[in-house]
Amino acid sequence: MTSQTARQVSDAVLLTAGAAAAVVVITTPPLRRLARRAARVWLGASIPVYLIREVRRAWIESGSGR
Asked: CA 49, 53, 54, 58 torsion: positive or negative?
């Protein structure tokens, strides 16, 4: 088996496993609620952190001091 074939097989296996997990989460109400909460927490935490980092980086690059 070549490395490209192995990569294609592993990609197919991961895609199939991801699709199966998505079906289970979508069809199971408690898991669906958990996934929705996790997405809300992730988005609620990651977007402000990203914006703060970008503002800080822009401030530093602008050369503005205190």
From this structure: positive
Quickly list H helices, 1-66. 3-27, 29-62
Distance CA 38, CA 14 (A): 22
pTM over 0.70? The answer is no
pLDDT at 55: 94
Residue type, 16: T
Q: Is residue 38 classed as helix, strand or coil in its secondary structure?
A: helix
Rounded to whole angstroms, how far apart are CA atoms 49 and 51? 5
Query: Is residue 5's pLDDT more than 90?
Result: yes
The Cα–Cα gap between 35 and 37 comes to: 5
> Taking the CB of residue 25, how many other CB atoms lie within 10 A of it?
16
